[in-house]
Design goal:
By secondary structure, the chain is mainly β. The strands form 9 sheets. Strands 32-33-35-34-36-37 form a 6-stranded mixed sheet, sandwiched between helices. Strands 3, 4, 5, 6 and 7 form a 5-stranded antiparallel sheet that branches. β20 and β21 form a beta hairpin. The longest helix has 18 residues. The chain is globular and about 65 Å long.
């Protein structure tokens, strides 16, 4: 097993235990079960030995320092986040270039010099504490913000006075998967019970509870708003409408589909009224105008539609289509300037339109080309919104948008040491194993020879209804400067073509995802972009699982593979942290049919000493 340099590596010995699990009568050995204890001295020693081996090889790569130097150089450019307005103040994030984290600035008018409002670089000496969430009170007096330590999903919340800049004594802990939704002089948030010492990073997150925190009080005094002891694995979120007239409860049991309820805003214990409680569809409330609630949903609309629910008559038969389902995915909708700004996904890139609140279309928003939108930031009473636009050879650029006049003007364009004009992006459609047409973006220097010799980097994700859209990346830019080809395959499991495309890459159809990716690699080879000796693949998380599965199935097709933070044990992933939420995409080894299917591709269970794997 290994790569061309295999004989020079002496791999650390890895102890084998004698754990054997019985799944529905099938015996499955798990000799490395001891590595599940992420806090043990043995695991720490194993990781240290593996890292020493890895870096002893990486440090000998001759061009590594030159690459690092060029990446530092190109990375060092000022970056601005999309501005947003709170009261009379504008806020935006800004990074001078190589700062560990962007700083949040504020200014009274867009022409002013900005002042620092929050600098996450000061949260810790070693830079491992990050800003993770920000929300302003509706009277603009307070900002609540979250921090994350060392990349953990756990959050701690704090409160800062906007005018004085003073950080108050409020300190909330054991928060996960939660926003901060302001109501009056406090906000709603979701937390879990304090975990046992040592189990913080692996214990299952159960019994979520929604609380209301009033500014200036201790967390122990927070008011319990919602819990459901009968359903300890469900997740909850409560949010208040911008006008503070209503509050909404969303309930999740997986990464797909949610239940939704509402009531008149207040801290009393009047029960919520359910709008839908079966978890089959997504319901995303985007805002209200008086008693009309606007909700983005895929209920009876796999490509999504925007519906209006009269909260005085909320029964399903009274729901109305504001923007009916169309031939492309309705990805997001924003209520701003008394209008609806809707962003669609068409063949994995964005287009946007503006509608009246009754759904009559006004106009299309003019965009620079094939790319991805971020934003729009704007409130109902604002006439200005901001949005960002990016593509593979177009660094993220901010536009100021006059909603009433439909005029976009350039607000901030970064100056990157990269000649965008020297590169071209094309979108191709290739055929997967079962005949499905799959789109793929291919980006490279203009005029490259299609002689099969180009080093090529192929990326994929393929899961959880997440769409892969064009975006600028300095690391990819450096790769392409060296003559490399970059390819992004929009494989099934994602949301590029709505819920049907997502579902076609889940549970007992997960093999479609791997087939689509393998077909993308074969297309790049058949069309002479590259050869298997010059083809590297990478992906992270669910994309890490993708890489693990395809190198087991077709090891000869790739020269190098980078499976980052992958879900590699498909029989036990649901037993840790929030892994149980992923069963909606993967299925579960607790079901006999799904177990057999999972065992067929689970990366850790399909490694073979007979195969010659890519590096």
């Amino acid at each position: 097993m290994g790569c061309t340099q295999q004989e020079t590596f002496t791999y650390p010995e890895t102890a084998k235990g004698d754990v054997v699990d019985d799944y529905h009568g099938t015996k499955v050995p798990d000799p490395y079960r001891w590595l599940e204890d992420d806090m043990s001295d043995e695991t720490a020693a194993w990781v240290k030995a593996q890292n020493e081996l890895t870096f002893s090889y990486l440090e000998t790569i001759p061009f590594r320092d030159a690459l690092k130097e060029r990446m530092t150089e190109i990375w060092n450019y000022p970056k601005m986040g999309t501005p947003f307005k709170e009261g009379d103040l504008y806020f935006y994030s800004y990074n001078t270039g190589l700062q560990n984290q962007s700083i949040l600035y504020t200014k009274k008018s867009l022409e002013d010099e900005g002042e620092v409002f929050l600098d996450p670089n000061g949260f810790s000496d070693d830079g491992t504490v990050a800003l993770a969430g920000l929300s302003f009170s509706n009277d603009h007096k307070y900002a609540a913000y979250g921090i994350s330590k060392g990349g953990s999903d756990w959050r701690e919340f704090f409160v800062k006075e906007v005018e004085s800049g003073k950080v108050l004594n409020d300190h909330l802990k054991w928060i996960k998967f939660s926003g901060m939704s302001w109501y009056k002089d406090g906000f709603f948030y979701t937390r879990y019970d304090t975990p046992d010492a040592g189990d913080e990073l692996k214990a299952a997150n159960i019994n979520a509870k929604v609380y209301y925190h009033r500014v200036g009080t201790e967390q122990s005094e927070d008011l319990l708003i919602h819990q459901d002891e009968a359903n300890p694995e469900w997740g909850f979120g409560v949010s208040a409408s911008e006008d503070e007239q209503y509050m909404y409860l969303t309930v999740t049991e997986s990464t797909s589909g949610n239940a939704i309820a509402f009531k008149k805003a207040g801290l009393d214990d009047i029960p919520f009224t359910w709008l839908d409680r079966d978890f089959n569809d997504d319901y995303i409330p985007i805002g209200n105008k008086e008693n009309m609630l606007y909700v983005l949903t895929n209920s009876d609309a796999p490509l999504y539609r925007l519906i209006g629910i009269d909260l005085n008559n909320p029964a399903r038969e009274n729901w109305v289509d504001i923007i009916p389902e169309q031939g492309k995915v309705l990805e997001s909708a924003t209520l701003a300037g008394g209008k609806i700004i809707a962003s669609y996904l068409q063949d994995a890139s964005n287009v946007a339109y503006v509608y009246e609140l009754d759904g009559s279309m006004l106009h299309e928003v003019s965009l620079p080309g094939i790319g991805a939108l971020g934003g729009f930031s704007g409130k109902m009473k604002d006439n200005t919104a901001f949005y960002s636009y990016t593509s593979f050879n177009y660094p993220t650029t901010t536009f100021k948008y006059n909603i009433a006049e439909n005029i976009s003007e350039l607000f901030y364009a970064p100056e990157v040491d990269f000649d965008a004009e020297a590169y071209e992006t094309k979108q191709v459609f290739y055929t997967s194993k079962d005949g499905t047409e799959v789109p793929m973006f291919i980006v490279h220097k203009k005029g490259i020879e299609l002689d099969g010799s180009n080093p090529t980097l192929l990326y994929g994700y393929g899961g959880f209804n997440i769409s892969m859209t064009p975006s600028f990346s300095t690391t990819r830019a450096v790769w392409m400067e060296q003559g490399g080809v970059f390819a992004l395959a929009n494989i099934r499991g994602g949301g590029e073509y709505g819920e049907a495309w997502h579902k076609a890459g889940t549970i007992l159809q997960k093999q479609n995802v791997f087939d689509d990716f393998i077909a993308a690699a074969e297309y790049l080879i058949d069309e002479n972009y590259t050869s298997s000796k010059r083809l590297a693949i990478y992906g992270g998380s669910n994309g890490g699982l993708l890489i693990g599965a395809v190198i087991n199935q077709r090891p000869e097709l790739f020269a190098a593979a980078i499976p980052m933070v992958g879900v590699m044990d498909m029989l036990r992933f649901h037993k840790f942290t929030i892994g149980r939420y992923w069963t909606v995409d993967y299925g579960s080894s607790e079901d006999p049919e799904e177990f057999n299917y999972l065992l067929g591709y689970s990366p850790i269970h399909n490694i073979s000493s007979e195969k010659d794997y890519p590096a």
